[in-house]
Task: inverse folding
């Protein structure tokens, strides 16, 4: 029932968009969904074979770095109050800086290589993974940990068999946010400085006043984000079969 309602809302939105675009009749500013799909079909080989791989590579590398570094720092903060006091304010401050302002700086540092885009992606995705994982590790009940200690469990046993399973739902919540943000980060990085990628292609088409071609790579980016989100959800459901869902 919920899926049917969402589908109906989406169809109505697309219909209103199509009608509004036809009435406005300025496709270089507001192309209709049909025009976007037609332009995508014309550019599908260029978008999918030339530019999509570059964007996916940026997303994958950025997510791997964020997952590894974010998990390590989350565990470190959980184990040491001093580290938590030192790193947590920095994590919060990193999200106060406009990403659009830092992206040109990364281009200056790394040039038009993939690493300038990866840096933007990491900056966006690092926060939700780290904070959610830390909150998950901190959510474990101390009474349970003390009980396990009295039963002969070591700190390593408590961490691996209690703290990690307790933190996994929080970790996946952060990861689902991160995978969608990674698409935005990669596109922003490519928009401001790149030689390939869907964001780069969209910016190039904007200079040519080709509205439908600007939206075509955005359509691909949307599909990529949805696919990544669904993929993480599938992995979450398989790894957390023990979790009772309402």
Result:
């Amino acid at each position: 029932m919920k899926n049917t309602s969402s589908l109906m809302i989406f169809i109505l939105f697309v219909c209103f968009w199509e009608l509004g675009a036809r009435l406005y009749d300025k496709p270089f500013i507001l192309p209709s969904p049909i025009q976007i799909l037609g332009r995508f079909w014309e550019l599908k080989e260029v978008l999918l074979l030339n530019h999509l791989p570059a964007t996916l590579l940026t997303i994958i590398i950025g997510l791997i770095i964020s997952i590894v570094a974010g998990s390590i720092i989350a565990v470190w903060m959980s184990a040491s109050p001093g580290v938590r006091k030192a790193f947590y304010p920095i994590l919060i401050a990193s999200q106060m800086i406009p990403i659009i302002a830092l992206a040109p700086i990364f281009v200056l540092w790394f040039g038009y290589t993939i690493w300038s885009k990866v840096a933007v992606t990491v900056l966006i995705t690092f926060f939700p993974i780290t904070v959610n994982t830390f909150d998950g590790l901190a959510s474990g009940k101390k009474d349970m940990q003390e009980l396990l200690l009295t039963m002969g469990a070591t700190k390593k046993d408590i961490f691996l068999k209690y703290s990690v399973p307790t933190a996994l739902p929080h970790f996946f919540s952060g990861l689902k946010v991160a995978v969608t943000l990674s698409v935005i980060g990669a596109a922003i990085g490519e928009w401001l400085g790149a030689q390939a990628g869907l964001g780069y292609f969209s910016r190039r088409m904007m200079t040519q006043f080709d509205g439908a071609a600007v939206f075509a790579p955005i359509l691909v980016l949307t599909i990529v984000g949805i696919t990544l989100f669904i993929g993480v959800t599938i992995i979450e459901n398989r790894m957390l079969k023990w979790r009772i869902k309402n």
